[in-house]
Amino acid sequence: MQLTMKTKLTELLHRKVPILAWLPKYNVNAAVSDVLAGITVGLTLIPQAIAYASLAGLNPKYGLYSSIFGGVMYIFLGTTKQLSVGPTSIMALLCLTYTHDTSLEMVAFLTFLTGLVQLTCGLLSLGKCKSYLYYGTPMSDVHT
Fold it and tell me: How far is CA 13 from CA 1, 10, 17, 117, 123, in A?
């Protein structure tokens, strides 16, 4: 019984923090390709992050911070290798809409709160609920 509970806990931890599952099996020979891909994505994110920070009405350095922090967090919590994480135009426009006449602290609080909601949804596996939504509902966010 004790071994079964330990195994279940380990499986749960590997599902919620995927780096614990794949890092021990990582092929070191692929490191050069992975570093090159990371540099390529990072260079692509620089102008994008600066533009989206300007779109949100913020100093461009905050766009760079958001792209770096998002990528680092995705290393530990992400499950897909083929994904570029960073600021988006939709989030920049929403940030401008809700914080255009407030202080930088309010922007930081909104960002923190958004991340907290996303982390909670991920830990509670609420992504499964999307199967109950009409197909056009989540896609409308992408196409606006």
Answer: 18, 5, 6, 20, 10
